[in-house]
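User: Could you check the structure of this?
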Amino acid sequence: MTELNGATENDKVDAVVQGVIFLLTINAKWSKTMKRKINGIVILALMVTAGCSSRSAVTAPEPGGSQAPSPVISSPVTPPVQTIPLPVAPEPSLSVSPSGYGFDQWQTGPLGDVFFDFDSTVLSGEAQNQLKQNAAWLQNHSLDGALVEGHCDSRGTSEYNLALGERRASTAKQYLVRLGVASSRLETVSFGEERPFDTGLGENAWSKNRRVHFVIKK
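Assistant: Sure, the predicted structure tokens are below.
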């Protein structure tokens, strides 16, 4: 009976020992597994940290150094277009001229013409008034002279009209001299019918051509 009890006690001890060994074995396996998991987590964290550090090392400027400025791309500047004004043609000036005829292609000036009746050298009242205006201008411009031209209409011969034109020019000159204009400042010439003011036919044109015309001489 004692041997039986002893066997029983030994069996209990063996069971307890085997239970402890089993627990220790399980504990050891669990520790190895957890340790592997913990080691894996630690390694993964270290890899992530290393990756972030490498990016920071590439992008972050060195301490104490100046960061290179990023290039600035500027768009080309278009120079301002200079507009050159086009030349403007001057408007023709309208000069105020004395009324009446006589300001043709041979003269544009202040001395008006005087006109005569057909085949006549007599100064009409209107002609005398015009000669008075011409004399006043010549007296105010003592350095200027005048060429006194005698003209006729187309009727009659050329020789007759040249002589008639000379008489008309002399008549106008003498009247100006009587008004105080020096004779040396006046020169007479006859063109007869060669320079008509109006080339038309009829009394309306002829009356304009029977005239004494004045050209200023500087």
